[in-house]
Amino acid sequence: MSLPTREELQTLRDELKVRIHLGTKEVQDAWDNLEQRWGHFHAQAELDKTASNVSEAGKLLAAELMDGYQRIKRAL
Description:
With 76 residues, the protein is mainly alpha-helical. It has one domain. Helix content is 75%, strand content 0%. The protein has helices spanning 6-19, 25-47, 56-75.
């Protein structure tokens, strides 16, 4: 699995944000947790403007975000 780009994560996040209000409490809680992690990722990505400069922690966080977004997408 390749590392998702910032744009891919942003697109998926935006799509889910529109649908999340219809989800269950469990999905909403998962979303809230991902939103906090998104804030950390977004701040790191602003510091590391190119994918080649993304730190290992940033890469791991990007993968975790994608996994979390995909779980929520399947739940909806």
